[in-house]
């Protein structure tokens, strides 16, 4: 077994500009460019004790190790995105040596080059729209007053069922009003989300709609109505972000989150059906 292996972060066009000084990737090593077959692989040297097949499989079960590795991987991809349009590779894509990396570039050269041409000069922006229905209900709820709680209606005696704040009839009315407020707020937010998506799609060359995120997993407040990725030319990024912020500012029930610019993760097709491009953790050792 080699004492050192090659960790591959991304594929980029040839002539890659220098990366920032002090940039460190996975295992704390400096990423470098390896050009071959008209392409550039961005790789780093990693120890076989951690990244050979068996130890890597064990590490991938360690959530702390996995999170640290993912952050280092993402830092390199982010640095590349500032200077070029990279094709991100899967987390933990590992090769035996430089020659193995070169063979991989040769094997997928046609598809990789075509994808780089298609995505050149473009970045991915993520947009999430949330309905803050609880906020709408709090805003719509009238303030309680002593007269409202206990005073008799003008011109007649109040009934015990209407007068008691905790009565079944009063509770039912409050529940029905809360449901109505929530449904109205949700309808309003969904309309805003549809309008926002249609407007942003006009600035994008391609769109991917991802499943809404479960708040129990994401930890985000509100109901996720839109979870979309937009492929935007770099020169149009300012207008795209400005438009998203404008549309989100008009509806107090809606929260809009815009993230990016990212490498075009959502728009990179797998090379030769091998799934080497951006995705979840996957060990890949090439001979």
Automatic annotation (TrEMBL):
It is found in: Gas vesicle. Its main location: other. The keyword Nucleus does not apply. InterPro entries: GvpL/GvpF. Coiled coil: none annotated. Keywords: Gas vesicle. It comes from the Bacteria. The keyword ATP-binding does not apply. This is Gas vesicle protein. The lineage of its organism: Bacteria, Bacillati, Actinomycetota, Actinomycetes, Kitasatosporales.
């Amino acid at each position: 077994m080699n004492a050192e292996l090659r960790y591959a972060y991304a594929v980029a066009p040839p002539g890659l500009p220098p990366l920032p000084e002090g940039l460190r990737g996975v295992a704390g090593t400096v990423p470098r460019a390896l050009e071959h077959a008209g392409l550039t692989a961005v790789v780093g040297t990693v120890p076989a004790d951690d990244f050979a097949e068996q130890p890597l499989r064990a590490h991938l079960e360690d959530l702390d190790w996995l999170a640290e590795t993912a952050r280092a991987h993402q830092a390199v991809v982010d640095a590349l995105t500032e200077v070029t349009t990279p094709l991100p590779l899967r987390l933990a894509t590992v090769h035996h040596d430089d020659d193995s990396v070169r063979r991989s570039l040769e094997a997928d050269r046609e598809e990789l080059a075509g994808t780089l041409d298609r995505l050149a000069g473009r970045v991915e922006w993520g947009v999430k729209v949330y309905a803050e229905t609880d906020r709408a209900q709090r805003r719509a709820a009238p303030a309680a007053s002593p007269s409202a709680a206990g005073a008799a209606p003008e011109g007649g005696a109040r009934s015990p069922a209407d007068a008691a704040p905790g009565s079944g009839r009063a509770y039912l009315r409050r529940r029905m009003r809360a449901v109505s407020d929530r449904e109205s707020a949700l309808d309003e937010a969904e309309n805003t989300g549809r309008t926002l998506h249609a407007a942003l799609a006009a600035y994008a060359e391609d769109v991917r709609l991802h499943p809404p995120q479960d708040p129990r997993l994401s930890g985000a407040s509100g109901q996720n109505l839109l979870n979309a990725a937009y492929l935007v030319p770099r020169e149009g990024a300012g207008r795209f972000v400005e438009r998203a912020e404008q549309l989100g500012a008009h509806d107090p029930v809606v929260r809009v989150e815009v993230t990016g610019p990212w490498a075009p993760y959502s728009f990179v097709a797998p090379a030769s059906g091998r799934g080497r491009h951006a995705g979840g953790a996957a060990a890949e050792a090439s001979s």
